[in-house]
Amino acid sequence: MNDTRALIETLSSLDYEGMYQNDFLLTWEKSQDELMATFRVAQILRGLREANISPRIFDSGLAISLFRDQSTRTRFSFASAANLLGLTVQDLDEKKSQVAHGETVRETANMISFMADVIGIRDDMFIGKGNTYMREVAKSVQEGFEDGVLEQRPTLVNLQCDIDHPTQSMADMLHLIERFGGVENLKGKKIAMTWAYSPSYGKPLSVPQGVIGLMTRFGMEVVLAHPEGYEVMPEVEAVAKRNAEAGGGSFTRAGGMAEAFEGADIVYPKSWAPFAAMEKRTRLYEDGDWDGIDALEKELLAENARHKDWTCTEELMAKTKDGAALYMHCLPADITGVSCEEGEVAASVFDRYRVALYREASQKPYIIAAMMFLARVRNAGEKLMEILERGEPRRR
Amino acid sequence: MNDTRALIETLSSLDYEGMYQNDFLLTWEKSQDELMATFRVAQILRGLREANISPRIFDSGLAISLFRDQSTRTRFSFASAANLLGLTVQDLDEKKSQVAHGETVRETANMISFMADVIGIRDDMFIGKGNTYMREVAKSVQEGFEDGVLEQRPTLVNLQCDIDHPTQSMADMLHLIERFGGVENLKGKKIAMTWAYSPSYGKPLSVPQGVIGLMTRFGMEVVLAHPEGYEVMPEVEAVAKRNAEAGGGSFTRAGGMAEAFEGADIVYPKSWAPFAAMEKRTRLYEDGDWDGIDALEKELLAENARHKDWTCTEELMAKTKDGAALYMHCLPADITGVSCEEGEVAASVFDRYRVALYREASQKPYIIAAMMFLARVRNAGEKLMEILERGEPRRR
Amino acid sequence: MNDTRALIETLSSLDYEGMYQNDFLLTWEKSQDELMATFRVAQILRGLREANISPRIFDSGLAISLFRDQSTRTRFSFASAANLLGLTVQDLDEKKSQVAHGETVRETANMISFMADVIGIRDDMFIGKGNTYMREVAKSVQEGFEDGVLEQRPTLVNLQCDIDHPTQSMADMLHLIERFGGVENLKGKKIAMTWAYSPSYGKPLSVPQGVIGLMTRFGMEVVLAHPEGYEVMPEVEAVAKRNAEAGGGSFTRAGGMAEAFEGADIVYPKSWAPFAAMEKRTRLYEDGDWDGIDALEKELLAENARHKDWTCTEELMAKTKDGAALYMHCLPADITGVSCEEGEVAASVFDRYRVALYREASQKPYIIAAMMFLARVRNAGEKLMEILERGEPRRR
Questions:
Q1: Of C70, C83, C332, the CB nearest to B96
Q2: Which pLDDT band holds residue A15 (cuts at 50, 70, 90)?
């Protein structure tokens, strides 16, 4: 508990006021202090829970979740975070609801928000759509609040969009902070964010984009590598470059996995779909061109199959710093010989890092809870100290 | 908070004892005092929540929901109300469950009720079925309670049936009370409940029926208008007539929208299906006559299309009292040029009233919470004063 | 409340320490004291709730549910139990989630458990699979806990597997304890667990297996009867024999219903699928042999139809002790002339026992809550006395 107390005390040196009553949509919209506050509140909440102290701050209230794509991890992380703080998850299931029947986003956003404190949205399938949709919802509830329709303005958490996956990249970063013993130790560390082969197609770009957009903020040497044609969104690359310049690190590209892995402290090999193809798919969906979508899918799978050598083998791992780089993944990974014939990573590599990977994933509920906490509590530091002092048990 | 305290004090002059341990199925089964108590408790609960006082009265307990038709608004309103009072919603999803496999209503009603305080049911699709089903459930849990199977008798809330939609009409009425500055100011006001064209078919009759069955209780001049063939249930018209006679208002029919809108203080133009056609559809479903249902649907859509002039335009709005009648709708509305080519209302009319419409909708969670509160707490007034005095924060 | 206090005091004479932090997978893995502790805690929790005392022991926390088969009763019982103790149910819906997409059980088990106190699983469809799967999950979360991935090790409750249905058989047993005025009065009582005809096919064997595996522990004379070919798993029969020898009762087989019912104090006639056929079906599913499955289904239904005389009639009931044996069923029953043309039981028999059957079912939420309580609280007796003394109301 001394650690937790000390962590709470460090919050007073950070300026995170701007997070109160605000959404968490893209990490690069947040200041360095705000990101640090999020990591610390996540650690504090974990410390409290592990010490059997309940950080519940709501006696009632809803956390609305809207998943436009399948999810196990993020769904459970969101549910865990909401529950820890005292909110009840209410799913907006577009199949059960009337959303598809001519309702405008504005109307639905208000109708579900009368008693909502938080809205979490996953909308990652179509380029140019997901983040835009979130901003429409945010604008709608802001108007509803200003018009006196909503007594309070629920805040949004981006649970993955077409551009960023902040709950993932923040959990990944917190994992690094813990593994390397502090954010200061990450300066100058090399992280290789690389494409890797997977037999499936169309995985969102938000994970690599989230990683290059965030990790460049902490003085790290971020290297991106992928086969030709698998470019990520140019605007996110621009963000990564700007961040690296401002933060004293670097953002570069490597021609292949071997080059990227060379001397790396951390590797993050993962499949994603080409940005241009995803854009094309979005247009095909808009036109309802199902034959076109089928053709595109076949084309993309064939293209993928030309890059089966992009896989995280023991040989490649041996090229990393002391042959012992930290292997990261957002899970589930396509593991060669386990979950597929040929995939993103060799079984022996995955096995060696399994515990670390699970620990990485375990940060997500706390990151989401921290985002909610900072958005809903005006002075998080004071409130957390109050919770610590009170010591109300979670398990009575 | 002084307003809330004053509202709580007014409860002592109302006789609402009969609501304790009782269901809320049709507004016309409730006394004037009971309706007034419901409005006031809704306002009090809203006042408490807005003052960050938690009106939670359950430490645990379930609110069962059974939706036999799609719903966003009512589903979220029910979830919000349950959560505000401390109940957890448990959906009875007939696809997931074994309800369809030869179980009797009696058995299911008891099996889901061992720890249930409230059961909310939406069953509005078939004439003669929904309300009947609710009464079967009510009878079943009453028997279960008397037989010692259930330690308590859960109370029912009608979330829309074939006859009435009390949570909607009560929310609508509370909206009017607030807009007109008190129920006493509604005496003599003219409200036009009219049919309106929609490109969809088969919308329930429970909204217009709920409105004419409730608004006639408060001395209002209720005018019903619809094309020939779009009659509502005759027994509900009879209820409206009786109410008007008893309450000093009137219930009349107008030949068209123009006549109905003339000098109206409030207009409620909305699509619904003809009662006789809905009865026919119910029989076709019973017989499993899918061809017959298809044919009926085509016939009804063709019939609807003959009445596209039944639409709430600016021209019609100009005919209302000072050209400024309050426009109402249960949402979602079919808005011409927005959610459909031709619909119930002109976009400019809808836009002008959007904030009012959202506010109207915002009453529903509080109305449902009030119905639950009055059914589960013996002396609501005392309990609410206790809650106010205690001042336990909702958001700690 | 004196009864409840007295029941709590009796806990001190039982050794149930081994249940803390442990799973409940098969009744025959539990000691006699542990079973008795479960019955008593169930009764105590019921007593507390009926006295409006909240036995809530969690301020937050999740109860994960995974239903691989349809369920109404068990789903609601699990939800009720979790809610009573303060946990929020989070469904792992394999259709919504990514479980089917190459994820290993180990990974999923950890990913859903970061804030889970309890995991309830129903997996009863395939012989050799359900219980095995539960043990895999248990092993996975144990490892996760030991590896520091999970701060706590969630405990499992078997909500029905291929081998046992402990929440059902324990609820059934508690029903008997209450009906016969104490477990000591069950010594020497004859219970007939018999097959009965149903027009459906493929009902799990876990109910008869659960009954013969549990009831033989309490000195009862357990008689099993079924048509040739409807054998249950031989290992469970072996368990029943061992139990009977150890407990001073007996486990025998009868050639038909009439013989089994003769002089019986309790009868439990219920349809199930032949073990060998279920094994065959499991293999056909593994091979994806859909034609084979169809053929097997037809064959089984034809075989079933040869045993329509296996039905619980008034004539058979007349053969029982004083013609008044207690009729039991896990529900829903196939009732002749009610839920099907010819079924497991005559309508008049079912009707006479309806209240008892509903009461039997009402034990399940409390049995599940007791299993959770004993697995999550180190000294259940002390904690329950503390809860009783505190007297915190459930309905405030």
A1: C70
A2: very high
CA dihedral A197, A203, A208, A214 (to 10 degrees): -160
Contact B58 C392 (CB under 8 A): no
pLDDT (0 to 100) of residue B4: 97
CB atoms within 10 A of CB C58: 22
- What is the b/e burial string over C190-200, where b = at least 16 CB atoms within 10 angstroms of the residue's CB? bbbbbbbbbbe
Residue labelled with tokens 């099993």: C224
- Quick: pLDDT tens for B87-146: 999 999 876 554 443 358 899 999 999 999 999 999 987 888 899 999 999 999 999 999
Q: How many CA atoms lie within 13 A of C395 on its CB side?
A: 19
Q: How many CB atoms lie within 10 A of CB A387?
A: 21
Does residue C396 belong to the interface with chain B, where contact is any CB pair within 8 Å? yes
Q: For residue A147, with 0-12 CB atoms within 10 Å meaning exposed, 13-18 middle and 19 or more buried, which class applies?
A: middle
Radius of gyration of chain A (CA): 21
- CB-nearest partner of C61 from A50, A332, A394: A394
Q: What three-state secondary structure class fits C89?
A: strand
- Residue B102 to residue C355, Cβ atoms within 8 A: no
d(CA C321, CA C153) in angstroms, rounded, equals: 48
At residue A150, φ and ψ (nearest 5 deg) are: -105, 135
The pLDDT, as a whole number, for residue A100 is 42
Give contacts of C58 with chain A, Cβ < 8 Å: 394-396
pLDDT digits (tens, 9 = 90+) for B220-235: 999 999 999 999 999 9
The pLDDT mean for chain A works out to 94
Identify the chains in contact with B, defined as 3+ C-beta pairs within 8 A: A, C
Q: What is the ipTM of this complex?
A: 0.95
Domains annotated on chain B, with CATH: 2-164+364-390 (3.40.50.1370), 168-359 (3.40.50.1370)
Contact yes or no for B115 and C56 at CB 8 A: no
Mean pLDDT of all residues in C324-330: 98
CA atoms within 13 A on the CB side of A268: 26
In this structure, how many other beta carbons lie within 10 angstroms of the beta carbon of residue C143? Answer: 18
Residue B123 gets the label, from left (phi > 0), alpha (psi -120 to 50) or beta, of beta
Q: Cβ contact (<8 Å) for B362 and A90?
A: no
The CB-side HSE value for B289 (13 A sphere, CA atoms) comes to 12
How confident is residue A103, by pLDDT bands cut at 50, 70 and 90?
Answer: low
